[in-house]
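Dear colleague,

Thank you for sharing your sequence with our group. We've completed the structure prediction you requested, and as agreed, I am returning the results in plain text so they can be pasted directly into your records. Please verify that the sequence below matches your submission; if there's any discrepancy, let me know and we will rerun it promptly.
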Amino acid sequence: MKSWKVASAGILTASILLTGCTSEQDAVAQKTETKTVHAEKSTDKTKITSSKKIPSQLQKPLKIASINQFSIGTFSSQYVSGVKKQVEEFGGSVQVYNADNDLSKMAAYVETAINQQVDGILIDHGRADAIAPSVKKAVAQGIPVVAFDSDINIPGVTVIDQDDYSLAWNSLRTMAQDLNGKGKIVYVWVGGFTPMERRNVMYEAFKKRYPNIKEVARFGNASQNTALDTQSQMEALLQKYPNKGDIDAVFAPWDEFAKGATRAIQQAGRDEIKVYGIDLSDEDLQLMQADESPWKATAATDPADVGKMQVRFLYQKAAGEETPQVYSVQPHLVEKEVLPSSKISMSEMGKYVEGWGKSDAAESPWMKTLKEASK
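Please find the predicted C-alpha cells below.
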C-alpha cells in the first residue's frame, strides 16, 4: 500500500495563525492478517472471482451503505457519482441514503445499515453529537466505517477531509492579495456543518491578519435551494449598497453560496465586485469561465476523486489492512485566469491544475486485480 500523507502545508500555516485548534489523533486501527486464495474466473456475474492477489475477505461482492447528511448542489452529486463508480469497479453494490440535513434521520440510517448487515458504511458529513453512538455500534459489530468531512473521532473509523483550513486560507489569501490588503467584503456563511465551522476558524484568523479588510455584511443559510436563496439575498444587499466601492469582494466558503452571489452580481452589472469561493463542480466551472465573470478564484478538491478515495479506504479496512485515523486531501487553488477560454469539464481540470484528480491515496496492489476480476 502506498504511503499516505496526513498533514499539508496549509495546515502548518493554520497552526501558526491559530492557537486553540484541536489536533487530530493518531491512527489506532489494528492491522490484521490478509489471507488469499486462488481459483478460476467464474462466469457468474454476481460473484467476484478468486485470485491469489485478492484478499479473502473480498472474494464476494461487498454491500455498502453510503449515508449522506444532505445532497445539495453539483458538488454533492459528483461526490456520490465517484462513490458509486469506485464501488461498481470493485464489483460491489452501494445503497445511498440522503438524510435531507436531518441528523436524527442520518443516525437512523446508520442503524438501518447495521440491521441489514452491510459490509461497510460510508459517512458523508454529519455531526458526532448526533451519529457517534450509531457509528460506535457499527464498529463494535465489525462493520468498517469511513467518514468524510465529519467531526467523528472514534477509534477504528478513518475520517477524511478536504483540509478545510487550507481550503479557506488559500481562497482568503488570494482575495487579500487582489485587494492589496484593504477593502470592504461580504461574508456568506452558515454554521452547523463541520467543514463550514473549520473554514470559519480561518476567516476569524484572516480578519486579524488583515485588519484593513472590513466585513460590511454577512448572511447565509442552507436549504434545498441554497444557490437561489443566496442570489436573492445578494440582490437585496446590492440594492442596499448601490455604489461602486461599497463592496469590493465576496467570500463564499461553499460553492452553492458562490454560485448565488456570482449570478446576482452578474445580473446587477456590478463587475467591480469579485467572488472568492471554496469547492468546484462542472456547473461552477461554467460560471467561472463566463466572460467577465466576477468569480475570480476557488480552493477545491475533486469531489468525485474524494468519493473514490473514501471507497478505497473502506475496502482496505474490509481487507484487514491498516488505514489512518485521519487523512486530509491536498486541495488546489483554481484561478479564473488559468482556465482556457473554451468550456471545459471537471475531467479536464488536470490539464490546467497540476495534480488535480490524481490522488493515489488508499491504493493497494490487489485493487487492480479486483477491478479486472469484477468486470
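Summary note from our side: The first helix runs from residue 9 to 17.

Kind regards,
the structure core
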